[in-house]
Design goal:
Elements: H1 2-11, H2 18-25, H3 27-43, H4 47-71, H5 76-80, H6 100-116, H7 119-138, H8 144-168
Helix pairs in contact: 2-7, 3-4, 4-6, 4-8, 6-7, 6-8, 7-8
């Protein structure tokens, strides 16, 4: 946890990027990416796969919430970093581990990559996932390890559900 706090203290010097970080954490950014890839899946006549990816992302969010109840870790803006002025923005819940933003973006990106195998689309989605994950650390909503764990869970869930779908031909 010391490395997490040190990293957060180091990253706070870039807080002037808060506006940019808010963009990557916002619903408009997420909705734009989802809509764009949804249109692409529609154009290639694989809308069922798109809906399956959305379903798995929803399951990932539920699984992340389940894990939050098990780990009960604080968020850095709640109690860990005394010098930051927005302590009251987090609330009293211990919902730090894992980062659902990271989990959801990485499960979505992993599945898009595995189904489409288009390098440019994969780069756009994984870059977006990394930027979303880093924005959560920059905004002090999560520690670095909470974001990394969320991303790893997302990648593993994406691979698992892709393999299950391929094996059992669910769609």
């Amino acid at each position: 946890m010391d490395f997490d706090l040190s990293f957060s203290e180091w990253l706070i010097q870039f807080y002037f990027l808060e506006e940019l970080a808010m963009v990557f954490s916002g619903r408009l950014f997420s909705a734009t990416l989802i809509a764009a890839i949804g249109i692409y899946f529609y154009k290639i006549k694989k809308l069922r796969i798109f809906f399956f990816i959305c379903l798995v992302t929803g399951l990932g969010d539920l699984f992340g919430n389940f894990l939050k109840d098990i780990f009960l870790q604080p968020r850095p803006c709640f109690n860990l970093i005394d010098f930051f002025p927005t302590m009251d923005k987090c609330g009293p819940d211990l919902t730090g581990m894992p980062s659902n933003h990271a989990l959801n973006f990485f499960v979505f990106s992993t599945m898009v990559h595995l189904y489409l195998k288009k390098p440019i689309i994969s780069i756009v989605f994984f870059t977006s996932s990394v930027l979303v994950a880093l924005s959560r650390v920059l905004l002090l909503k999560h520690l670095l390890t909470q974001v990394i764990i969320g991303a790893l869970i997302g990648v593993l869930m994406g691979i698992l559900f892709f393999k299950v779908q391929q094996k059992w031909k669910i769609i």
